[in-house]
Each structure stands twice: as C-alpha cells, then as structure tokens.
Automatic annotation (TrEMBL):
HAMAP family: Aden_phosphoribosyltr. InterPro entries: Ade_phspho_trans, PRTase-like, PRTase_dom, UPRTase/APRTase. The keyword Glycosyltransferase applies. One of its GO terms (molecular function) is AMP binding. Its EC number is 2.4.2.7. GO terms for biological process: adenine salvage; AMP salvage; purine ribonucleoside salvage. Belongs to the purine/pyrimidine phosphoribosyltransferase family. Pfam families: Pribosyltran. This is Adenine phosphoribosyltransferase. Catalyzes a salvage reaction resulting in the formation of AMP, that is energically less costly than de novo synthesis. It is an enzyme of class 2 (transferase).
Length: 181
C-alpha cells in the first residue's frame, strides 16, 4: 500500500513545469503528464476521493470547472455513485442556463450551468485542477448557490499559494499540492 505522502510526491514529480508560459514571469504547472501515467493518475483519483470522503462525507453531486475539472470530476462522480455536472464558459451549453459573470485581471468572464442540473439543497463538491487568484472558484461557488445547492467543498489539485486565491473562496477548500514561487 502506497502512503498518501508518497502518492503526493509521485504526483508532484509527474507534473510538467514550464517557465515563462504562457507569458514571461509565469510558471505553468502542467497536469497532462499525470494522464499519461495510469498508476499516478490512479494515485491522484484515490487522494481526491479520500479528500471528499474526509471533508464532505455526504456528497450528492460533483461539479467540474471547464476544462480540466472535466478530466477528474466524472471519474470521482462515478466512484462516488453521484451525478457529474459541468460548469462551462459562456455560450457552450444548450437549453436554459444560469450564469455568473466574474472579474479577471483584465476584463471579465462568465460561467454557466444548465438550469436544473444541480438540485436545490444538493450537497456539492466543486473540482478543478488549479487555484490561482481564486476568481473562477468563487464564481463557481456563486453559481452553484444560485442554483440552490450547497457547496460542501472546493477541491483543487494545485494551489499557487503566493497568489492568495484561497482568500477569495468563501467555502471549505482543500488542495493536494501547494507551490510557492
């Protein structure tokens, strides 16, 4: 049996690191190499699953954020036996939608979910790969609450601690790996 600390080390070692991408001064943390290693990807899913069981024992829905939350969210939902609901960028979902607009460093963006995709009162875990400034996760929390559900946990793989995104997230937040630049 591989211990949690060893799994986290394997995951951290598998991440790609690209200095000055997508622009100078940014260090890009790439999760895609994890997907190419089934053993490490399995470690990641195990740790995320354990975090949900520990921090949100009653979880009735997994919400994943566009786009990398779509890679982990459905696997976790399947393992938990609960629905998966995507939150997408503006204009990507058919039917009636509920939207939240949020501020970015330069300008704004909009998240949308299909009306009725999350049930009122449902206990939700929101999953994404990265927490930077916290704006997208805060917007996702606002959107889930606008749909009438309760955010039990925001679950992140990588947190960029120096950007202090955690301060913007109004709900319980758990990260597997933290980076300080």
């Amino acid at each position: 049996v591989i211990m949690a600390a060893d799994k986290i080390a394997r995951i951290r070692d598998s991440l790609g690191t690209f200095p000055d991408f997508p622009k100078p001064g940014i260090v890009f943390r790439d999760i895609f190499p994890l997907l190419r290693n089934p053993s490490v990807f399995n470690d990641l899913i195990d740790l995320l699953f354990d975090a949900i069981k520990e921090s949100s024992p009653v979880t009735e829905c997994i919400v994943g954020l566009e786009s990398r939350g779509f890679l982990f969210g459905p696997v976790l939902a399947q393992k938990l036996g609960v629905p998966f609901v995507p939150i997408r960028k503006k204009g990507k979902l058919p039917g009636e939608i509920v939207a939240v607009t949020y501020q970015l460093e330069y300008g704004s963006d909009t998240f949308e979910a299909q009306k009725g995709s999350v049930q009122p009162g449902q206990k939700v875990v929101i999953v994404d790969d990265l927490l930077a400034t916290g704006g997208t996760m805060k917007a996702a929390c606002d959107l889930v609450e606008q749909l009438g559900a309760q955010v039990n946990l925001c679950l992140i793989i990588i947190e960029l601690v120096d950007l202090e995104g955690r301060k913007k997230v109004p709900k319980p937040l758990k990260t597997l790996i933290s980076f300080k630049d």
